[in-house]
Amino acid sequence: MYELFKDLGDWLVSGEQWTGPDGIGHRLAEHLQYSLLATLVAAAIALPLGLLIGHTGKGAFLAINLASFGRALPTVGLVVLVFLASGLSMWPVYVALVALAVPSIVTNTYAGMTAVDPDVKDAARGQGMRWHQVLFQVELPLALPLIMTGLRLALIQVVATATIAAYVSFGGLGRYVFDGLAQRDLVQVLGGAVLVALVAVVLDLGLSGLQRVLFRHRPA
Amino acid sequence: MTVDWSWIGDHTDDLTTLTFSHLQAALSAVFFGLLISLPLAVVAHRIRPLRGVLLGLSNVLFTIPSIAVFVLLLPVSGLTRTTTVIGLTIYTLVVLLRNTVEGLDSVPAKTKEAAKAMGTRPLRALLTVELPLALPVIMAGVRIATVMSISLVSVATYIGDGGLGQLFTDGFQRNFPTPVIVGVVLTLLLALVADALLVAVQYVLTPWTRRRA
């Protein structure tokens, strides 16, 4: 066990490992690109949807079912299916990652919106606020903590799952996992896994830091 | 992309076997996940300093890609079902632990005080007052963990297990969509049926919540 960790340490810090197209630097950049782009696209789809469902109170049934459907969808199957339909491109990976991220964001946004005290909304309306003012100035700020939780959850899932890009012969940190698997090189697999976990944890900490900055004005 | 219906007809036995193997892996994971997370959740609920540590630790485990978890377990448990179940169990822990702790937190303090005042001992209060009242939130976690496990079993196909996931590798290697489509549809069906059954179980177990809903 000790040997393995020592080898892993050597693997992670060796200079040659970090340069070139197979280097950690390049793979890391690819992994970040896949993960962030997929999460952004998912957020662009899911946030308006969640806000709309939460604000109007219509389509809650849809939101809840979308969530369990999204969780049940096997990502590997989805990647292979889109791959067989579209050929060798990044499409399958992005489709699968976005499909993975949308439900967490929609359900948390919706949950955040419904948790807003109805009296507060009534008061806002009573003061003559229009629906969009109620939505953006009252509901959205109050729902933000739960919305952020949804985004963080989605991002973690996407970063961990972006590993799958390597299965359909693309880059990212999954390369080390799949190459190591093929070469029976446990250190390489472990290295890839540790890096993915690190990226996920660092991004999650970053988002929670951002969240703290956004809510500075409110007592916890 | 068309479905080759005759392939399905020729492989019904295989499909049944794979479906049961798939279900067995997922359900074992949820079972062991509950077995581990229930006591841990009670500890996290009662001893505040441990709460952050336990929840944080389970979050970190959640970030490791599932493929890597399965591979990393190979030196420990080999190319076996055990590896699949251990890997999946790790993933259920995040959801189960978080929901059980939240469920226990949601029990009103007055109810706990009333139980104490009536002379109910802590263990008995936990088993007969706190856990039953936390059940709706715990069951929400069980449902998510079950659906997630059913969807994740496929990933174990890289280590030669993976139930219906084997249909994905098969279709991928032969450039033949039918098994992939069948695999995705069967996985979705399994998850939906399991979720519906859990809703029914919760309905039976928590009669006092019915009037409110």
From TrEMBL, chain A:
Tree of life domain: Bacteria
- Asked if the keyword Transmembrane belongs to this entry, the reply reads yes
Q: Which UniProt keywords apply?
A: Membrane, Transmembrane, Transmembrane helix, Transport
Q: Where in the cell is it found?
A: Cell membrane; Membrane
The record, for Pfam families, names: BPD_transp_1
- The segment(s) forming the ABC transmembrane type-1 domain are 28-207
Signal sequence region: none
One example of a Gene Ontology biological process annotation = transmembrane transport
Q: Does the keyword Transmembrane apply?
A: yes
Membrane-protein topology: Multi-pass membrane protein
CDD domains associated with the record:
TM_PBP2 (cd06261)
One cellular component term from this protein's GO annotations in UniProt:
plasma membrane
What are the TM regions of this chain, as residue ranges?
32-53, 60-85, 91-111, 153-174, 186-207
Family recorded in the similarity comment: Belongs to the binding-protein-dependent transport system permease family.
Q: What is this protein called?
A: ABC transporter permease
Q: Can you name the source organism? A: Streptomyces liliifuscus
From TrEMBL, chain B:
Q: Where, subcellularly, is it found?
A: Cell membrane; Membrane
Q: Which residues form the ABC transmembrane type-1 domain?
A: 19-198
Q: Which GO terms describe its cellular component?
A: plasma membrane
Q: Which UniProt keywords apply?
A: Membrane, Transmembrane, Transmembrane helix, Transport
Pfam families in UniProt: BPD_transp_1
**InterPro entries per the UniProt record, alphabetical:** ABC_transp_perm/SBD (IPR051204), MetI-like (IPR000515), MetI-like_sf (IPR035906)
State any GO BP term from the record.
glycine betaine transport
Q: Where are the transmembrane segments?
A: 20-41, 53-73, 79-97, 133-160, 180-205
Highest taxon, organism lineage: Bacteria
The membrane topology noted for this protein in its Swiss-Prot or TrEMBL record is:
Multi-pass membrane protein
The entry sums up its family as follows: Belongs to the binding-protein-dependent transport system permease family.
- The protein's name is ABC transporter permease
